[in-house]
């Protein structure tokens, strides 16, 4: 669901992270732990992997130590801001067949664009590339696909071009995305201003979303067990 998915959709980016969305139920977490064990994946940062942490919206981070995968970093989440529940994400997934008889389930491009609207600078160019790549790759789009482009396109010139081809749909979608009215009039400067306002709002919503979660992580850090003074003394004396 992260940068590796963006690469497979054709939006070039480099990352050693592998972001994975999972179902946070007991049976699936058993399977997840078995897979992480095969990868010799060590937990890093907070919190430790648990259904409670995943359902709260935290990410659980790991670093692989298996041969050939050293320092690859799987990050696991189950709940994300603006994302549908996992069941809906799974139903909308895209499955790719890769060389070596490998099958990979990707979060749909529509869902991926939604969760990439964060406060991080690096995510916004990726949102733009994902939508542009989708537009150029689809020759006979459905009405639902065009609606997605109208709602999510982040390039003023391209958006103005889209509304010229799909005026009726654009007028209906303008109720949810006001800058489409500016695109219908061909005012690229107003469209650009609208795009900047959208981004600023999403960044702030993401900051608000993560604020209590970061506070929880800080509480976990402060409450983690500390080594006893006896053990520290023993280590200085060269004992185990």
Q: Explain this structure to me?
A:
The chain is α+β, with helices and mostly antiparallel strands and 240 residues long. The protein has two domains: 106 residues, no CATH class; 76 residues, no CATH class. Helix content is 54%, strand content 12%. It is built from twelve helices and six strands. Strands 1-4-3-2 form a four-stranded mixed beta sheet. A two-stranded antiparallel sheet has the order 5-6. Strand 3 and strand 4 form a beta hairpin. It is globular. The C terminus is likely disordered.
Low-confidence stretches: 228-240
- N-to-C terminal Cα separation, in Å? 43 Å
Provide the number of structural domains. 2
Helix content: 40-55%
Count of β-strands: 6
Structure class: alpha+beta
Proportion in β-strands: 5-15%
Averaging pLDDT over every residue, what do you get? 90
Strand and helix map with partners:
Elements: H1 3-8, E1 17-21, H2 26-38, E2 41-44, H3 51-56, E3 60-64, E4 73-77, H4 86-91, E5 94-98, E6 102-106, H5 109-115, H6 123-137, H7 143-152, H8 156-165, H9 167-173, H10 179-184, H11 188-223, H12 229-236
Question: Which terms would index this structure?
Answer:
240 residues, 12 helices, alpha+beta
Quick structural summary:
The protein has helices at 3-8, 26-38, 51-56, 86-91, 109-115, 123-137, 143-152, 156-165, 167-173, 179-184, 188-223, 229-236, and strands at 17-21, 41-44, 60-64, 73-77, 94-98, 102-106. It is an alpha+beta fold. Strand 3 and strand 4 (73-77) form a beta hairpin.
